[in-house]
Amino acid sequence: MGISQASTVAEVATALPATIKVFQQHGIDFCCGGKRPLADACAARGLDVNALIAELQAATIAGDTDRNWEQAPMADLVAHIQQRFHEPLRAELPRLEAMLARVVSRHGDRYPDTLLPLERTFEVLSADLLEHMAKEDAVLFPAIVALEEGSGGGLGGMISSPIGVMEAEHDAAGRALGEMRRLTSGYAPPADACPTFRGLYYGLTELERDMHQHVHLENNILFPRAVGLARSR
Q1: Span 155-190, pLDDT tens digits
Q2: Is 131 among the domain residues?
């Protein structure tokens, strides 16, 4: 695709997955907030839109090894999301929660305005994400696969309703991630932070990065494809 100032962030990230790293480097939301034109996204971040477009184009020239999920079977995309994001997330959330509890117990009295609300926000996010993934794996994803197979065992034309619920939950997760980033000043540990403290912030940064990619694949590729297929039948 040609990249212009009017292209939306989500359109570029969807058609050209190699550009996702560029968006991440500049802190541009390409998942929940990805429906903005590049010009607007750059204005919000104080970036030169033409310079960003040049970076995006360079990323595509460098090549991209990611699979084209707009063309692949939706069943393959579902399996990819489950294997690449759902399964690791179920292991990572308890690990981060335990690390956060350890940091709060040792440093919470010194950084109460950061660590205590961070712990509360993370606990809600973790519980919500585990429930969210369980619903996707048990109900929505099998319905999407059934829709694609034409087996009649899915939700059919009603698929947009549960998708709307999942998108709303994605928005809520995005707000929680944004709040954690705000509380930690962009996950910048204090100068005297111990290795566990630094490891926690690194892990939360990785969580945020993976969540952006995870939600992008669902909101901008899987869900629109499923809704489009349901409407065509």
Answers
A1: 666 899 999 999 999 999 999 999 999 999 999 999
A2: yes
Same domain, 84 and 181: yes
- CA 224 and chain centroid, separation: 16
Alpha carbon distance 144, 154 (integer Å): 7
What sign does the CA torsion over 202, 204, 206, 208 have?
negative
Tell whether pTM > 0.70: yes
Q: What is the DSSP code (8-state) at residue 36?
A: S
Domain ranges, residue 107: 74-231
Helix, strand, coil % over all residues of the chain, rounded to 5? 75, 0, 25
In a domain, 140, yes or no: yes
Residues 90, 134, 178: CA angle, nearest 5 degrees: 65
Which region among 57-71, 110-124, 159-173, 199-213 has the lowest average model confidence (pLDDT)? Answer: 57-71
Number of domains in the chain: 2
Asked if residue 1 is part of any domain, the answer here is: no
100 and 197 in a common domain: yes
Helix (H) or strand (E) holding 208: helix 195-216
From residue 175, give the alpha-carbon distance in Å to each of 17, 52, 68, 161.
24, 25, 28, 22
* 30 shares its domain with 133: no
Q: Are residues 141 and 28 in the same domain?
A: no
Ramachandran class of 175: left when φ > 0, alpha when ψ lies in -120 to 50, beta otherwise? alpha
